[in-house]
Design a protein that fits this description.
alpha+beta, single chain, 42% helix, four-stranded antiparallel β-sheet
Length: 77
């Protein structure tokens, strides 16, 4: 996860990381904005807590392991 790929404001987090975005949705955070620029999509979420803590939870979660395994399987085809 590229640390430059995330922007935090008081109650929002913006990221281009698809896995982190899926994790935030799974955790119940609302997607409030979607920006598509060339080959990059930026997702902005309403977060009700510490964005840095959410990143740590994501990195330590089994969801990240699942996502990495899914990517590995997709590479096989």
């Amino acid at each position: 996860m590229n640390k430059d790929a995330h922007q935090l404001t008081d109650h929002h987090i913006t990221t281009d990381d698809l896995a982190f975005s899926a994790y935030l949705k799974m955790k119940g955070h609302h997607l409030i904005k979607l920006d598509q620029k060339k080959s990059k999509t930026l997702f902005t979420f309403d977060v009700d807590g510490n964005g840095d803590q959410l990143k740590v939870e994501f990195i330590n979660s089994s969801f990240l392991q699942f996502y990495n395994e899914l990517r590995n399987l997709k590479k096989m085809f």
